Known about the structure:
mainly alpha, single chain, 4 helices, about 80 residues
Amino acid sequence: MKIPAIKRLVxxxxxxxxxxxxxxxxxxxxxxxxxxxEDEGEKLTHVFAAIFVLNxxxxxxxxxxxxxxxxxxxxxxxxx
Length: 80
């Protein structure tokens, strides 16, 4: 997971386009825009994180860094 890649997606894509990209990656197709990542799994992680961040910003009126912090907290909990 690379924070700059997530930030670029949040700044350049809409929620709808990210959801379409997620579906494309899950169907083993290429999204309509470039998603950074070494493999399909990392690309999917970046898209999923960007979706979470955009939703959090919209739902809570938070800034990018706060929404990203919430996402990383959830990742840490799921790992442990």
